[in-house]
Design a protein that fits this description.
Largest sheet: 2 strands, parallel
Strand content: under 5%
Number of strands: 2
Shape: globular
Radius of gyration: 22 Å
Strand order of the largest sheet: 1-2
Order of helices and strands: HEHHHHHHHHHHEHHH
Helix content: over 70%
């Protein structure tokens, strides 16, 4: 198994394009960004790329090469996409929360009753928060484990799916923005006092400040998750489970953990249940598109390398004959 360098180049180009869009939008839209918080991320990405290049050119260890490059892409893409999500939120298109609330009602889901059940049991609220915050760590761990296990194709597909799911979620959230169930229903403070979920009304205020133009400073050190529909958190949880299908029985505990994450998403993410369902659908679409992307780029990369391999074999044959 060889690294699909064509796919890596396309991913790098995608990150560069998003960064360019971010930069132009920030300049023309009157935004500013705290660049000081970029230093650590840039240094980490540069270090990972350097180590990956070393293992590509000199040590020829495909597992470490893949782990380094894909992790660097994950960090760079996550930052670029997070900034883009802030910018698209500022478009201030009409909210669709009333439609999402109606969809929840049609499903028989009562957000106040569901979250209230958890709030009345602080131990359950603590467990909800504990599993909810594991998602980002699960994503990075999945990339590293897949790569170091020699599952190069699976690593590429997983990382591609993460990127595609993010872009789908950002596009939908820009065109069909939603604040989420918490920010729509706005329960009294005592409703969540016993639980203190991760996302509260003060957390959601960033969303509204971007929409009304109050906030024009983006601090990379304190980025908030702004996408409500579809739930990108939910999409990532499903993608982690799909990624772990490569590890056989390990999918069972990972599946249970991420089922718990999905159940916690309305509580600690302030989401409508239909947001979670949308995130699951987004993950499925992203996984299929990533698989197609891997197949197409792999075929093109193989076709491009074939003439070089034939030339090398021909040179060896010629040298043997003349020898």
């Amino acid at each position: 198994m060889q690294v699909n360098h064509l796919q890596t180049r396309i991913k790098i180009a995608t990150v560069a394009l998003i960064l360019m869009v971010d930069a132009i939008w920030i300049a023309l839209g009157g935004f500013s960004i705290l660049v000081g918080s970029l230093a650590l991320a840039i240094g980490l990405v540069a270090a990972l790329m350097a180590v990956g290049t070393f293992y590509r050119r000199y040590r020829k260890m495909i597992e470490f090469e893949t782990a380094c490059f894909e992790t660097a892409l994950l960090i760079a893409f996550s930052l670029a996409a997070a900034v883009l999500s802030y910018l698209v939120t500022s478009l201030d298109f009409p909210l669709i929360d009333h439609q999402l609330t109606a969809a929840d009602a049609a499903l028989g889901f009562d957000w106040m009753a569901y979250v209230g059940f958890v709030n009345d049991r602080p131990w359950l609220g603590g467990l909800s928060t504990l599993v909810y915050v594991t998602t980002l760590a699960q994503v990075s761990t999945t990339v590293v484990l897949l790569a170091l296990s020699g599952k190069v194709a699976e690593t590429r597909q997983f990382m591609s799916a993460v990127m595609i799911a993010a872009l789908i979620s950002i596009a939908i959230s820009g065109l069909l923005p939603a604040a989420g169930a918490l920010a729509t229903l706005r329960p009294p403070a005592e409703f969540t006092a016993a639980n203190a979920p991760l996302v509260d009304l003060s957390y959601k205020q960033v969303f509204f400040d971007l929409r009304d133009g109050t906030l024009r400073l983006i601090d990379l050190a304190s980025l908030k998750g702004l996408i409500a529909f579809p739930s990108y958190h939910g999409a990532l949880s499903v993608l982690v489970v799909l990624g772990f299908t490569a590890f056989g029985r390990w999918i069972i505990p990972v599946g249970f953990l991420n089922a718990a994450v999905l159940m916690a998403t309305p509580v600690d993410g302030g989401h409508h249940m239909i947001d979670v369902i949308g995130g699951i659908a987004t993950a499925y679409v992203a996984w299929k598109l990533a698989k197609t992307f891997d197949h197409v780029t792999g075929r093109k990369a193989a076709a491009a390398s074939a003439p070089r391999e034939e030339t090398t074999e021909g040179e060896l044959t010629s040298r043997s004959a003349t020898g």
